[in-house]
Amino acid sequence: MKIISSIHELRDQLRGQNRTAFVPTMGNLHEGHLSLMRLARQHGDPVVASIFVNRLQFGPNEDFDKYPRTFEEDVEKLQKENVYVLFAPTERDLYPEPQQYRVHPPQDLGDILEGEFRPGFFQGVCTVVMKLMSCVQPRVAVFGKKDYQQLMIVRQMCHQFALPTDIIAAETVRDADGLALSSRNRYLQPTERAEAPQLAIALNGVRTAVLAGDRDFAKIEQQAMATLAARGWQPDYIAVRKRVNLQAPAAHETDAPLVVLAAAKLGATRLIDNLEI
Ligand code: PAF
């Protein structure tokens, strides 16, 4: 595996490749990320991964400084997955001057759910993904359903800018007790780790109620949030939305495919998860 930090070197290395499959990450790789690499391999060749902790997508009071950075271990894992190139730019490589041109996702998708609680987050994500794609020029790129809203926004961005990159969605990988894998799980104290699967349990409860025919989404969401709050969580949202655009379903939209999305803080750690219904 070649480890490349400069954009020019990356372009030289990938010249002539037209089936590149790309997996952008912020490192601290776990089995969820590795499943993205394996899915990428099924859709293209060579597989290119990136590791870049993107300052633009962190709010001023978020965890940019303490975000786990485990480069050596990550390299070993990617080597075992036969990744061809790891693009690991420094901030100076990717943002040699202040990044003044930015990609703003539309408000109806970018300012709801995660965007409401993390203002500017999707602008930061879209800007870096656009820039990484301009460097890698992939035929496909793989994003996890764990970050469901991010996946939708990136897919729409590629569509609206007519980028020649298809976005492939990868299923969420979970621990045996149901907790969705996330780099931020490592912030959890042991008692919090034991409690953490309750988020997936809450989502499953919402899913079961909806599948049983209950259409009072506001009530179901409130009950799920109250249950978590009673266990010591601070829920930001639990929301049943249409998969197609993440808007709330109207009462008559009984056939619309749905997804339930959640974000909640457990101690100092904010977890997100979702479940297609
Ligand atoms: O999902 C992530 O790890 C990040 O948001 C991404 C897509 C690598 C952009 O920094």
Tell me about this structure.
- Pathway: Cofactor biosynthesis; (R)-pantothenate biosynthesis; (R)-pantothenate from (R)-pantoate and beta-alanine: step 1/1.
- It is found in: Cytoplasm.
- Its main location: cytoplasm.
- This protein is of the alpha/beta class.
- It has two domains: 2-170, Rossmann fold (3-Layer(aba) Sandwich); 183-276, 2-Layer Sandwich (Pantoate--beta-alanine Ligase, Chain: A,domain 2).
- It has helices spanning 7-14, 31-43, 71-80, 91-94, 107-110, 114-117, 121-136, 148-160, 190-195, 198-211, 217-230, and strands at residues 2-4, 21-25, 47-51, 85-87, 140-144, 166-170, 234-242, 258-266, 269-276.
- The strands form two sheets. Strands 1-4-3-2-5-6 form a six-stranded parallel beta sheet, sandwiched between helices.
- Residues 24-26, 54, 57, 125, 128-129, 147, 150 line the site of pantoate.
- Pantoate (PAF) is lined by residues 24-26, 54, 57, 125, 128-129, 147, 150.
Structure summary:
With 277 residues, the protein is an alpha/beta fold. The chain has helices spanning 7-14, 31-43, 71-80, 91-94, 107-110, 114-117, 121-136, 148-160, 190-195, 198-211, 217-230, and strands at residues 2-4, 21-25, 47-51, 85-87, 140-144, 166-170, 234-242, 258-266, 269-276.
Keywords:
Pantoate--beta-alanine Ligase, Chain: A,domain 2; 2 domains; alpha/beta; ATP-binding; single chain; 277 residues; Rossmann fold; three-stranded antiparallel β-sheet; 11 helices; binds pantoate; globular
Please report the distance between the alpha carbons of the first and last residues: 39 Å
Put simply, the count of helices is 11
Structural class: alpha/beta
State the CATH topology of the largest domain. Rossmann fold
Largest sheet: 6 strands, parallel
**% residues in beta strands:** 15-25%
Bound molecules: pantoate
